[in-house]
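TASK: fixed-backbone design
INPUT:
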C-alpha cells in the first residue's frame, strides 16, 4: 500500500513540474519592475503608472515603475537588451525613439529582438503656427517656404519631432531645423515667435487650443484623429507624413513563451479595463491596443519609416 502511494505521489510531482508554469508565471511572489526610459511626469510616465496597480491586481505581485533616463532612451534600452528575460523586468517602449537610438546613434541593442507584449498608445503629431501667423493653411506655408526663411523647432536632434521635420522636407516643405534641449524650450521659442512652426503632440495641442494661441495646419498621420479634425497631407495630394510616439510594454529578448502568454493576457486586461478606458476618454488619450505579433508589426512599420528617413537625418546632424 505504501509503495503504491509513493508511486502516485512521485507521478503527481512530475505532472506538477510540467504544468505549473502554465498557470503561475510568478509563483515566487517577486515584484514586476517596469522601466520607463523617460522622465517622471511625462505622458508615458503617467500612462504606465495608471496601468501598474491594475497589473498588480491581476498578477498578485507588486508592480514597480522605475525611471531610467538618459541619451534619448538609449541607456535604458541598452540595459534592457542585456537583462534576464524572466518576466520580472519589463520596460515601457517608446517608438520611434527606440529605432532612432539604434540606427541614428548606433545604440548597443537590436530593437527587433525585444519581446513585444502590448502596445498602449499612439500619440500622433500636429503642425502648428501661432494665431497671428500669416499662414492659414498648409499650402500657404508650403508656398512661403519656396521664398522665405521658414523654421521648425524640434525637441532635440534624434527626437520624433526631428524625424517629422525631415519627413516634411521630403514632402516639399523647405525649412531650417532648429533643435532645442527638450519640449519646454522648443515650445517657448515657438510661442515667443522666434520659430515659424512647431510639431506638437495631443497634450500640448489641447492646452494651446484652450488658450486660443495657435492654428493647426495639418494632422501628421495617415488619417484624421478625433477629437482633433484637421486635414492630413495625403488629403492635400502631398506625400504622407506620419509623426508619432507609440508607447507599449516590452520585455528583454528571449522571454519564455509561457511567461509571454501570461504577461500579454494580464497587461491586455489592464489596458482594456473600464478604469483605463474611462480615463483615456476623459483625457483624450490616443489609445492604440495591439498585442504580441500585432504589436511587433507596428514596430516593423516604425522601423521602415525611420530607415527611409535615415540618410537625411544623418545629414542634418552632420553624420555620414
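OUTPUT:
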Amino acid at each position: 500500500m505504501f509503495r503504491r502511494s509513493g508511486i502516485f505521489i512521485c507521478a503527481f510531482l512530475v505532472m506538477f513540474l510540467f504544468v505549473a508554469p502554465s498557470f503561475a508565471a510568478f509563483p515566487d511572489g517577486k515584484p514586476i519592475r517596469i522601466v520607463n526610459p523617460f522622465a517622471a511626469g511625462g505622458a508615458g510616465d503617467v500612462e504606465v503608472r495608471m496601468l501598474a496597480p491594475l497589473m498588480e491586481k491581476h498578477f498578485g505581485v507588486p508592480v514597480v515603475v522605475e525611471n531610467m533616463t538618459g541619451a534619448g532612451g538609449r541607456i535604458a534600452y541598452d540595459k534592457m537588451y542585456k537583462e534576464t528575460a524572466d518576466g520580472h523586468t519589463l520596460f515601457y517602449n517608446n517608438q520611434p525613439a527606440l529605432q532612432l537610438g539604434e540606427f541614428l546613434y548606433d545604440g548597443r541593442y537590436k530593437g527587433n529582438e525585444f519581446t513585444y507584449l502590448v502596445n498602449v498608445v499612439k500619440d500622433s503629431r500636429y503642425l502648428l503656427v501661432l494665431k497671428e501667423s500669416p499662414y492659414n493653411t498648409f499650402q500657404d506655408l508650403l508656398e512661403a517656404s519656396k521664398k522665405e526663411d521658414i523654421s521648425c523647432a524640434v525637441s532635440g536632434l534624434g527626437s520624433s519631432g526631428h524625424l517629422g521635420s525631415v519627413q516634411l522636407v521630403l514632402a516639399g516643405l523647405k525649412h531650417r531645423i532648429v533643435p532645442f534641449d527638450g519640449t519646454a524650450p522648443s515650445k517657448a521659442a515657438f510661442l515667443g515667435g522666434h520659430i515659424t512652426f512647431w510639431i506638437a503632440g495631443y497634450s500640448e495641442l489641447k492646452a494651446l487650443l484652450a488658450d486660443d494661441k495657435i492654428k493647426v495646419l495639418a494632422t501628421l498621420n495617415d488619417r484624421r484623429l478625433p477629437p482633433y479634425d484637421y486635414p492630413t497631407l495625403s488629403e492635400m495630394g502631398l506625400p504622407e507624413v506620419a509623426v508619432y510616439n507609440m508607447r507599449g510594454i516590452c520585455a528583454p529578448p528571449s522571454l519564455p513563451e509561457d511567461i509571454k502568454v501570461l504577461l500579454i493576457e494580464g497587461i491586455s486586461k489592464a489596458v482594456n479595463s473600464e478604469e483605463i478606458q474611462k480615463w483615456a476618454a476623459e483625457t483624450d488619450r490616443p489609445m492604440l491596443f495591439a498585442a504580441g505579433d500585432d504589436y511587433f508589426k507596428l514596430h516593423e512599420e516604425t522601423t521602415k519609416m525611420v530607415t527611409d528617413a535615415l540618410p537625411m537625418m544623418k545629414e542634418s546632424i552632420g553624420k555620414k
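COMMENT: DSSP finds eleven helices and ten strands in the chain.
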